[in-house]
Amino acid sequence: MDPISAVSEELAEINGQISDIFRALSNGFQKLEKIKDVNRQSRQLEELTDKMRECKRLIKEFDKEVKNMESRNDPNTNRMLSEKKQSMIKELNSYVAMKKQYQSNLENNKRVDLFDGSNEVYGDDNVLLASSMTNQQLVDKGNQMMDETDQAIDRAKKVVHETINVGTETAATLKAQTEQMSRIVNELDSIHFSIKKASKLVKELGRQVATDRCIMALLFLIVLGVIAIIIVKIVNPQNKDIRDIPGLAPPAMTRRLLWTRH
Q1: CA–CA separation, 112 vs 122, rounded Å?
Q2: Burial of 25 (0-12, 13-18, 19+ CB in 10 A)
Q3: Taking the C-alpha atoms of 213, 214, 215 and 218 in order, what is their torsion angle to the nearest 10 degrees?
Q4: Which residues contact 25 (CB under 8 A, 6 or more apart)?
Q5: CB neighbour burial string for 56-91, b if at least 16 within 10 angstroms, e if fewer
Q6: Residue 43 falls inside a structural domain
Q7: Is 161 part of any domain?
Q8: What is residue 199's three-state secondary structure?
Q9: pLDDT per position in the chain (262 positions), as tens?
Q10: Which one of the record's GO molecular function terms can you name (predicted)?
């Protein structure tokens, strides 16, 4: 069992995190030895530097926790924890020294690359340094930069002009669409008005049809009554309750006079 775990679980957890970082640093520096590209070496060193910062923070946290527990621990435990902290600091300092050595070698390699293979002096972006140029080279370089600036300005103007054209076309399209929407709204209003008017006409026609039906029904009843009277008169002409219908038979007095003459 880890003696630190017997003292404090929190200290054991911090110790475990620091051990993990030390393993990552060891693997990182072994990987750095195999990298040949300068840019990749720089990125690898930055990652290792971040891990060392985190390790330093954890060691400070470990020391703070040890001091808080110092009054509760026996002298042997305090001495063991102090030796553990010193061992952590020593190991971290060894990685810091390795980082400085790699950083120095990396800077030297960059300087060599700057001067290697050419009588002209170039920077990282492959631009001829002004201190090594002649007056004519400076003039030529200035003219070149001015030409590039003019070209960039022309491209910017072209982009602005195209943007204005696109904006104009968009505005025209939006205006046409707005007018079209306005026409559609007007047409919808007209349709709505027509529908209301048609609904009103349908209601009026419905009422008129209902009235006509009532009249037709009344006329039909009258016709039925007349037909019924005619039938009854034909079947039973002696019925006194039903008076003669004008035009169907001659009056009774006329019939008597005709019988009298015979």
Answers
A1: 11
A2: buried
A3: 120
A4: 48, 51, 52, 55, 95
A5: bebbeebbebbeebeeeeeeebbeebeebbeebeeb
A6: yes
A7: no
A8: helix
A9: 577 877 788 888 999 999 999 999 999 989 888 888 888 888 888 999 999 999 999 999 999 988 988 888 888 988 998 999 999 999 999 999 999 988 888 777 666 554 444 433 334 434 445 555 666 776 777 778 788 888 888 888 888 888 898 888 888 888 888 888 888 888 888 788 878 887 888 888 888 888 888 888 888 999 888 898 888 878 876 665 555 555 545 555 544 444 444 4
A10: SNAP receptor activity
| Cα separation of the two ends of the chain | 162
For residue 119, give both structure tokens.
């009588």
Q: What is the pTM of this model?
A: 0.42
Residue type, 203: K
Q: Which two tokens stand for residue 130?
A: 């002004």
Of 89, 123, 157, which one is at a domain's C-terminal end?
Answer: 123
Domain that holds residue 70: 3-123
Residue 76 included in any domain = yes
